[in-house]
Automatic annotation (TrEMBL):
<dbReference type="GO" id="GO:0005730">
    <property type="term" value="C:nucleolus"/>
</dbReference>
<dbReference type="Pfam" id="PF01900">
    <property type="entry name" value="RNase_P_Rpp14"/>
</dbReference>
<dbReference type="InterPro" id="IPR002759">
    <property type="entry name" value="Pop5/Rpp14/Rnp2-like"/>
</dbReference>
<protein>
    <submittedName>
        <fullName>Putative ribonuclease p 14 subunit ovary overexpressed</fullName>
    </submittedName>
</protein>
<comment type="similarity">
    <text>Belongs to the eukaryotic/archaeal RNase P protein component 2 family.</text>
</comment>
<dbReference type="GO" id="GO:0001682">
    <property type="term" value="P:tRNA 5'-leader removal"/>
</dbReference>
<keyword id="KW-0819">tRNA processing</keyword>
<dbReference type="GO" id="GO:0030681">
    <property type="term" value="C:multimeric ribonuclease P complex"/>
</dbReference>
<dbReference type="GO" id="GO:0033204">
    <property type="term" value="F:ribonuclease P RNA binding"/>
</dbReference>
<dbReference type="InterPro" id="IPR038085">
    <property type="entry name" value="Rnp2-like_sf"/>
</dbReference>
Length: 176
């Protein structure tokens, strides 16, 4: 290690024979020069030993949502077109013309419980979700949206873990 430092100083002095003299004038000793050289070596070794990890995130173009609309007082007749209109009104109320320009597709709608599968561009997901969350009334009637699931795949909306029957692993008992 001392030989490396000596070689470094000799190499440095080969470029400038007055380097040692200049360093002594500004108060740097041989020890401080070797210390600086050691620190530089440690940094270069550390930089060589670190590996760079690249994380790639693949975003889908669309995101699918499972949502329902609940009125405080039942009796409101809502079909798929009206459901979409209520969503568009919620977007317009929350985000103005920018929100009104968000395109939302109602893929499947059940009139019995006012539940629907929606499709929206991934870039508009936060806008749609927040406007649904902030909705508190439609035509003066109190209502609220509930978001059940959000997924990049429409197939995963149809699957519910609540319907699985989780069974404990079978235990073998030794007969006595």
């Amino acid at each position: 290690d001392v030989n490396k430092n000596l070689c470094f100083l000799q190499w440095f002095e080969s470029f400038n024979p007055f380097a040692t003299f200049a360093f002594t004038l500004i108060g740097l000793s041989y020890e401080s020069l070797t210390h600086v050289h050691q620190k530089l070596e440690q940094k270069s070794v550390h930089m060589e030993s670190t590996t760079r990890t690249v994380r790639t995130v693949c975003r889908t173009e669309h995101v699918y949502m499972d949502v329902s609309l609940r009125f405080e007082e039942p009796g409101e007749e809502v079909d798929a077109a009206m459901f979409k209109f209520i969503i568009q009104q919620a977007l317009r109320t929350s985000f103005g013309e920018v929100g009104a320009s968000v395109h939302v597709d109602v893929l499947k709608f059940r009139e019995t419980d006012l539940r629907a599968y929606l499709r929206v561009l991934s870039s508009n997901l936060v806008r749609l979700w927040s406007s649904l969350t902030l909705t508190s009334s439609y035509n003066g009637r109190p209502c609220s949206f509930r978001v059940y699931k959000v997924s990049p795949s429409p197939a995963s909306l149809a699957v519910s873990s609540l319907h699985y029957q989780h069974l404990p692993a079978a235990e073998e008992t030794a007969a006595e």
